[in-house]
């Protein structure tokens, strides 16, 4: 059995970033930027008003009250072509270009209009409420750098920089194949000894949540023929992820069948709980990750290995799983040689300290506990018994709540 760290290294090292593709801004949310974004325009393109009011000469309103004559209008998207002369004012609106001659804006609250006559009650030094050309950015400025996970603010910026398309990393294609005679899809008719398959749908969501594209290969029966037929669907994918069938039971065919198909196995057992029967290898051009069948094991191994693998294929520099610190909410026994990932809740005590309390039962089939958990407590191999209050490493789980570290 190899360690979690060693398994992680052996999975990540051979993975190369996927290629680059172009997407429209409407499809760019959550994608990873592959090339810098430079402004194709200057914003604002000319000096504009930041308020509704009057564009005037500051000298004319240095002493108030002052009476000016309105000679035109400058709405956003329009312009006053003439020059603002002494004693003159141009009605201006937010975003309207500041006309030549004017050097300040009197806000409309500080002026009373009576036809063409504008009575200014309070002056405004030069430059007041004027956004100079290029205040936000100039043409050619770098707005976004490669590696950025594109959020709504980035998309707004790229749009205002007049960049309708972006270069992003192609989403890794992850084929997901469940295995087991006992499994039916949710809602399907069930035999007496059958259970509902949770993992293929759960992993598919997990893959998409991690920024990759999931290809659902369905559920293979525990026969060579069925496994071979469905596994063939992984051709062209960046990674095949199988669920179950990787331990040493009589019905655990994945290693045999994929082996016949040319699978080059790197390792197939790791010192981790949940998740001992984890397999990794290569099937031609496609990486292959064999996850354990137990639902909690599959999702926890997904978090520890599959998410970093996807991050690596997406070209992200940071692939480590985010960790935090908390105090144990109850005593835990000494650990054996497998690195342990305990499902736990998080809460703050009266002093504000973050307390992680593991569930009493840590059975790897219990999705109810996994769904209720706020974090995983990581216990090193051979960690000694630890009393309540001991500081521990935790991995926060989604969605991050207000109390998340
Ligand atoms: P296996 O590794 O195939 O022996 O599976 C270990 C355990 O996980 C068995 O109890 C299976 O019934 C269960 N299991 C395997 N795949 C799934 C799945 N897709 N959904 C729910 N449970 C599963
Ligand atoms: Mg099975």
Description:
By secondary structure, the protein is of the alpha/beta class. It folds into four domains: 4-16 and 171-313, Molybdenum Cofactor Biosythetic Enzyme, Chain A, CATH 3.40.980; 31-43 and 136-169, Molybdopterin biosynthesis moea protein, domain 2, CATH 3.90.105; 48-129, Beta Complex (Molybdopterin biosynthesis moeA protein, domain 3); 324-396, Beta-clip (Beta Barrel), CATH 2.40.340.10. Helices cover 17% and strands 30% of the residues. The chain has a six-stranded mixed sheet with strand order 7-4-6-5-9-8, with no helix packed on it. Helix 4 (224-231) packs across helix 5. The longest helix is centred in the C-terminal third of the chain and has 19 residues, at 295-313. Magnesium ion binds at residues 179-180, 244-245, 251, 293.
- Average pLDDT taken over every residue: 95
Total strand segments: 26
Bound molecules: adenosine monophosphate, magnesium ion
Q: Main sheet?
A: 6 strands, mixed
CATH class of the largest domain: Alpha Beta
Portion of residues in beta strands equals: 25-35%
Q: Report the CATH topology name of the largest domain.
A: Molybdenum Cofactor Biosythetic Enzyme, Chain A
Helix-strand makeup class: alpha/beta
Terminal-residue CA separation = 32 Å
Q: State the strand order across the main sheet.
A: 7-4-6-5-9-8
Radius of gyration: 31 Å
Q: What characteristics describe this protein?
A:
405 residues, alpha/beta, Molybdenum Cofactor Biosythetic Enzyme, Chain A, Molybdopterin biosynthesis moea protein, domain 2, Molybdopterin biosynthesis moeA protein, domain 3, six-stranded mixed beta sheet, 26 strands, disordered C terminus, binds adenosine monophosphate, binds magnesium ion
